[in-house]
C-alpha cells in the first residue's frame, strides 16, 4: 500500500478477496485520505495490486488502439492531472476533433453518479468500452485487441496473476477500472494545511479565497472532494438545441430524456484545477480568470439554471476574484502528477 507524500492516511476499506466470479486475487487495502469520505461502489471488481498494475500497463499501451499509436494516456496526461490541455482533442485514430473536452481523471473511486459529462456510463468498467471502440477515439476491434494482448507474454501472465483467467475483454475493462480508481489525489498545499501538517500554512489571500469558495461554490463543489459528482446547469447557455450531434449539447437530458436536465453537465472537481485548463464541458474558458468572471457576471438564465446560482451572477469584486484564484492554486497536488512508482508509465518490455 502506498501513502502519498506526507498526508496522513487511514485504511478505511479492505476490498474483499473474492469477486462475484469467485476469483481470489491478493486482497488490497484501499487507502483513503483521513479527511475524505468513504467511497461507495459495488461493481464485482475488487482491487488487487496485480489488477491495478495490469491496468496501469494497459492505460499506457498503444495496443489498445486500432492503429497502435494511441493509448488512454494520449488524452489523459498525468502531468495535467490526467487531462489533455486541449479544447477538443484530436489524438484519436480518425484525427477528428471531439465534441467535448477530455475530463481529468482522479478520485474516481468516489464517482458513483455516472461518468462522462452527461453521466452516460454507470461505472468505470462500462465506461472503458466507449473510448476503446469509438471511431474518433481508439476505434479498436475488441477481438483483435485480445489477439494482440495474447502475443505479449507479460500480459498473458499478468491476467493470470490478477484474475486467474486468460486474457479477455471483460478483464481488460476491470484492470483499467482498478487502475483509475487508484488515482487518489490528496496531497495539495490545501490538504497539508487542512490536516495541520507541520510547517503547512496558507497566506491570508488564500484563506480569504477559501472562505469565498465555501460561500459561493460549495453548493456543487462540495466537501473535500470539491465536487458532488452530480449534474448542474451553470449558466453557460440558454439554447440547448443540438441538430445533428446526437444530443451532445443537451447535457444530462441526452441520457434521462427529462426536460429538467437540459443543459446540465457533470460537476468537475476543483482539485488540480490550475492544471486542467481549458474549462467546462466545451472548454469555453481558457483561464481561471475567465471562469471566475463567468460566475461573477456572465451567468445566463434559463429554465433549468441551477437555483444555487443567481441569475445576475455573484458580483465578485476584482479583489475577491483574485482571492478565489489564489485558493484554487492551493489545490494542486504536485505529488500526484509526478508519482512514478504508482501512476506514471510503468517500465515493462512489450
Write the layout of secondary structure elements.
Layout: E1 9-14, E2 29-33, H1 49-59, H2 124-127, H3 129-133, H4 142-150, H5 153-163, H6 169-181, H7 189-194, H8 204-216, E3 231-232, H9 253-256, E4 265-266, H10 288-298, H11 318-329, H12 334-337
Antiparallel strand pairs: 1-2, 3-4
Structural overview:
The chain is built from 12 helices and 4 strands. The protein is globular and about 60 Å long. The longest helix is centred in the middle third of the chain and has 13 residues, at 169-181. Residues 1-27 have low confidence and may be disordered. The protein has helices spanning 49-59, 124-127, 129-133, 142-150, 153-163, 169-181, 189-194, 204-216, 253-256, 288-298, 318-329, 334-337; strands at 9-14, 29-33, 231-232, 265-266. It has 2 domains: 49-179, Cytochrome c-like domain (Cytochrome Bc1 Complex, Chain D, domain 2, Orthogonal Bundle), CATH 1.10.760.10; 189-332, Cytochrome c-like domain (Cytochrome Bc1 Complex, Chain D, domain 2). The protein starts with 8 loop residues before the first strand and ends in a 13-residue tail after the last helix. Helix content is 29%, strand content 4%. The relative contact order is 0.15. The chain is mainly alpha-helical and 350 residues long. The strands form 2 sheets. It has a two-stranded antiparallel ribbon. It has a two-stranded antiparallel sheet with strand order 3-4. Helix 1 (49-59) packs antiparallel against helix 5, helix 1 crosses helix 6 (169-181) and helix 8 packs across helix 11.
Amino acid at each position: 500500500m502506498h501513502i502519498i507524500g506526507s498526508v496522513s492516511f487511514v485504511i478505511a476499506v479492505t476490498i474483499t478477496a473474492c469477486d462475484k466470479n469467485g476469483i481470489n486475487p491478493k486482497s488490497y487495502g484501499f487507502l483513503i485520505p483521513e479527511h475524505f469520505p468513504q467511497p461507495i461502489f459495488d461493481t464485482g471488481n475488487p482491487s488487487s495490486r496485480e489488477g491495478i498494475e495490469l491496468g496501469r500497463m494497459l492505460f499506457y499501451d498503444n495496443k489498445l488502439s486500432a492503429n497502435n499509436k494511441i493509448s488512454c494516456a494520449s488524452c489523459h496526461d498525468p502531468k495535467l492531472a490526467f487531462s489533455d490541455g486541449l479544447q477538443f482533442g484530436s489524438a484519436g485514430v480518425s484525427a477528428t476533433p471531439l465534441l467535448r473536452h477530455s475530463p481529468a481523471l482522479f478520485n474516481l473511486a468516489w464517482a458513483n453518479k455516472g461518468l462522462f459529462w452527461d453521466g452516460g456510463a454507470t461505472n468505470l468498467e462500462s465506461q472503458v468500452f466507449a473510448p476503446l471502440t469509438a471511431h474518433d477515439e481508439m476505434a479498436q476491434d475488441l477481438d483483435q485487441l485480445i489477439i494482440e494482448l495474447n502475443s505479449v507474454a507479460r500480459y498473458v501472465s499478468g491476467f493470470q496473476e490478477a484474475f486467474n483467467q486468460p486474457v479477455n475483454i471483460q478483464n481488460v475493462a476491470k484492470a483499467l477500472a482498478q487502475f483509475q480508481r487508484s488515482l487518489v489525489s490528496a496531497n495539495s498545499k490545501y490538504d497539508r494545511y487542512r490536516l495541520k501538517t507541520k510547517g503547512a500554512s496558507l497566506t491570508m489571500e488564500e484563506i480569504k479565497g477559501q472562505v469565498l469558495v465555501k460561500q459561493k461554490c460549495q453548493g456543487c463543489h462540495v466537501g473535500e472532494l470539491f465536487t458532488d459528482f452530480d449534474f448542474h446547469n451553470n449558466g453557460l447557455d440558454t439554447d440547448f438545441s443540438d441538430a445533428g450531434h446526437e444530443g451532445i449539447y443537451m447535457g444530462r437530458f441526452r441520457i434521462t430524456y427529462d426536460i429538467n436536465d437540459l443543459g446540465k453537465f457533470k460537476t468537475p472537481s476543483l482539485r488540480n484545477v490550475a492544471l486542467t485548463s481549458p474549462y467546462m464541458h466545451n472548454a469555453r474558458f481558457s483561464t481561471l480568470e475567465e471562469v471566475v468572471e463567468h460566475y461573477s457576471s456572465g451567468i445566463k438564465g434559463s429554465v433549468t439554471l441551477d437555483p444555487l446560482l443567481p441569475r445576475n451572477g455573484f458580483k465578485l469584486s476584482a479583489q475577491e476574484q483574485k482571492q478565489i484564484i489564489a485558493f484554487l492554486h492551493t489545490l494542486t497536488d504536485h505529488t500526484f502528477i509526478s508519482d512514478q512508482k504508482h501512476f506514471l508509465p510503468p517500465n515493462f518490455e512489450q
